[in-house]
Amino acid sequence: MHEVSIIQSLMDQVERYAAEYAMTKVSRVVIRVGDQTGVCKDSLQFAFSAISQGTLVEGAEFVIEHTPGRELDLQTIEGEQEESVGEN
Amino acid sequence: MKIDINQRILSAHEAKTAQNKQLLAAKRIVTINLMGSPGAGKTSLLEGVMALLRPDLRVAVIEGDLFTSKDAKRVAALGIPAVQINTRGACHLDGNMMEGALDQLALDEIDLLIIENIGNLVCPAEFDLGEDFRLCLLSVTEGEDKITKYPLMFKDADAVVLNKVDLLPYVDFGLKQFYQDLTLLNPQATILEVSCRTAAGLAELAEWIKQCVTAKRQELARTAMQEKG
User: Fold this and answer.
1) CATH number of this structure's domain A3-81, picked from the four choices 3.20.20.70, 1.10.1740.10, 3.30.2320.50, 3.30.450.40
2) What is the pLDDT of residues B6-23, one digit of tens each?
3) Residue from A31, A74, A75 to probe the interface with B (highest B Cβ count within 10 Å)
């Protein structure tokens, strides 16, 4: 159940960074989840697709990397930038 | 473009929790996070132990539930300041909800704050609320296998309290297995047997809570001394 609030926090974070870098679309989000967190990966996937709908993250590839500890980290995001900002 | 972020996903919650913890320490309030299944007897435990704590400590309670203020009313009926948090579906309390609840309490008039978390053996274990001590409640009707089935909950507990021991003759609770599994998983935990119905063991629990308060106060005093130089 708390996977939904984890994804909610993740989405806030992703949107903040996307805005900071003037991204118009996020195409890939990579997170790391430790085995000792007790977080269900399938529920994360489900919550991600549900909560990202209607945002600039919708349709993005969601990659969950496994680690042995208690990590719960946003690693990287990839996306397209506004043309005026990019190219440098 | 690709951005490397490498940041905790729950960093917003964790920052809020750190802030709450600082506030509680500044007010010299000792906090206990009380966790356990629905029906384990968390509110009954509070009702039972309160009379034993009150002569020495000013206690307040934060009650977490999905809906209703039934538990806060039960605690308030004892004359204890109680704030109800309704999560409306969320399975745990977090830093933001705690901040809202702390706002409603007269923090200068509290020695001990007990947070009764949402009845759930899974999610609350994941969300540190800035508490000083974790008290996990299990009742004999739930079965001894819960220790190994929900290790995250019991692994970090400072005390595990086994409730409803008056029902032991009537249920198939493996008491020996319970002790074996728990000591293996969490050798540091204090283990107490109680019955909120008969009041057995509640005096020992009250004693443990008082010891927590003393230990935390000594720690706060030490820190204050170090800061002074």
Assistant:
1) 3.30.2320.50
2) 999 999 899 999 999 999
3) A74
